[in-house]
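Project standup — Tuesday

K.O.: blocked on the structure for the chain from last sprint. Re-posting the sequence here as requested.
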Amino acid sequence: MTRSNPDRIIVVGGGAAGLMAARELARARRHVTILEARDRCGGRIDPLPVSDFGYPAEGGAEFIHGKAPVTHGLLREAGLSLQPIQGTSWTAEDGKFSRRASQNPHESELQRALAELKVDLSLAEFLTSHFSHPRYEQMRRTIERMVEGYDAADPAKISVAALREEWMDGGRSAQARVAGGYGALIEFLAKACRNHGADIRFGSVVKAVEIVDGQTVIRCADGSSHQSDCTILTAPIPVLSEIDLPPSARVRAAAVADIGFGNVIKILLCFQTRWWIETPLKAADLTFLISEEQIPVWWTQNPNPQPVLTGWFGGPKTAGLAALDEKELIEAGLGSLAKIFGLDPRRLTERMVAARAINWANDPFARGAYSYATPATRAAQLTLAKPADGIIFFAGEALYRGADMGTVEAALDNGIETARAILRR
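H.V.: unblocked you, prediction finished:
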C-alpha cells in the first residue's frame, strides 16, 4: 500500500545525502528520524582532529569538483568560504622531477573517437578497439592510471560514455576546498535538521527493513525497532547488500551490481617543516605530485602553509594492501615518499609529528570510497529511483545522474531530489 502523504519518515544514514534529504523533509514539517551507524554525521566526510594536524584535515572527501551548484548554495547559506587550489603539479620518475605534462600528442584522435562513439563500452574495451597500436602505449597507460586514481575505478568496468561527458566538458579541473573543511558543512546541515525537529540517533546499525501493514519497520543491531510511513536508504551501495530488505526492494536493490564502486587509501603525514621545498624539487608552490611508487599521488595544502603531505591510492589495485593495518600503511606512505625524493625513510619518520591512514574498503559502514558509472549504470539508477512498494526509497551519490558521480555534490543533489520526490507524492 502506498502512503500518499507520508508524515513519519526514517532516513538511514547521516551522510551528505541523508542530511540533505532530512533537512528538506523536516522543513516541510515531516517528522524525520535519522538512523546513523557511526557516532558522528558525515559518512565518508571524515574530519580529523585539529589537535593532530593543526587544521581541520580531511580523512575522506576533501575537494569540491566542477561547478557544484548545490554545494555552493549550501556554503553561502552556512556563511562558509572556498579556498581555491593553487600552485604547480609535478611528476616524479626515475628520481627526476618535471612539471606535469598536460598535452597528449594523440588528443585530437582521442577526442574524435569519443565524439564518434555510438555504443557505450568500458574504457578498456574502448582503448583496445581504437588505440591498441604500440604508439599509443603511453596514452593508454596515462588514461588508465588517471581513471584508477582519480575515479577510483576499474578500467575494465567504467563507462567510456560517462568519461566522455566529463572529459569533453573540460574535466573536473576546477577544484577548491571548503575553508574549515567539509566537516563545517556537515555541522551546518546537522544543526539545521535538528532545528527543524529532526531526531538524529547515532550507533543505529540498521540490519533489516520490513513492510508491516503498509508501513516500514526498521530493525537495528541493538534490538531496537523504528516504524515510519516511508524510509530513505542512503547507505553506500556495498553496505546496502548487508541490509535485509523486503522482496520488492531487494529486487530493485539488485541493480546496484551495475554501478561501479571503487576504493581509496588516504594517508596524511604531518611533519615539523615543509622539508620538500628544500629538496632538488625546490617547489614551494607544489600542489600535486604524481609518481609510479606504491602510494603514487601526493598533494600539499597549498596555498596554506601546513607541513602536511596527503597520499592517495585509488582503484582496484588497492586490494593488494587490504591486509595492512594503519601503522603499515603509514610506513608504506613514508617509503613511497622516500623513494620519490631519494631520502632515508628513517629521516622522514624522525621529522613526522602526526599521521593517519584510512583504507576505506576496511570501513564497515562504507566498504569503499565512491561510485562510478559502468555502461549499465544509467539503467540501474532508473530502477533504483523507483520507490519499492511506494515507501522504500534509495538515495545517495551512486544514484546521481549527472557528470560528477562519486562527489559530495552528487550526494547533496540526490538527497534533495529524493526528498522532493516524496513530498510530491
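K.O.: great, moving the ticket to review. The two ends are 13 Å apart (CA to CA). The chain is about 35% helix and 25% strand.
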